[in-house]
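Continuing the series of single-chain predictions for the mutant panel. This is the parent chain; the variants come on the following pages.
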Amino acid sequence: MALQDRARHRLPAIVALALPVLAGIACLVAFGAPGSYVAANGAGLALGLALLLLLDAPDERRSRIVAVALVALLYLPLVAGPAYNDVTRWIALGPVRLHAGMLVIPALAVFAARDKLYAAPILLAALGAALLQPDAASGFALTIAAVGIHHATRDWRMGLTAIVGFVATLYMAVHGELPATEFVERVLVDYAVLSPTVALALFAALVASFVLIATAVPLERPARLALAGSLFGFSLMALLSNYPSALIGHGAAPIIGYGLALGLVRKAAA
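Parent structure:
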């Protein structure tokens, strides 16, 4: 399929990724964020869009291999990542720090939604990593991804996974909170103080992205709902506590992560 045709087919996914990220970059510029923040998000968007346009989903056997590799990547910060106040959530690439959960969980949600046999083990293994880090935002993103899969498939194992994830998230919320960083965490709350109109517009961009992911991107329904659920989980925790604001705040990891996940279109549908 020609690149132009791929772009046309994946246009809802392109808009779902670019709209909140560009709105977030505009707010970074407007409210005086460091230039490096703007550059990082811009570079993340370029890479995320490239992944979205150029990737296709691997076959079933390779999908399981990739899913295992992604789960292992979630555990990498526990071994090699930087730690802050006994919290380890980041993958260090030289001077760059990428939030492991936001980088990995979007694609993992898609792979889990497609694997009827191993969906629950995939998400529970990822929850284990979030619990050890601890990271309530990743825990809740996985929980609502499981809710999305359950809503689409009515698989009782997904319901049980969601219950386990919710309980684990409550524990993580008490044990893993860090001080907020300006332009990274709680950005909607901070922007609402500076300009309620701008905050409302940014929130609308995020909601539009959620709706597009849940209803219009070229993924099958369980994958759409799982991916939208992960975004809802990350975003709600960012509103409630000191966790990164996915797509609209500073941070390349969620931009790359959602670009990767949105690019996992099955070849038959592409």
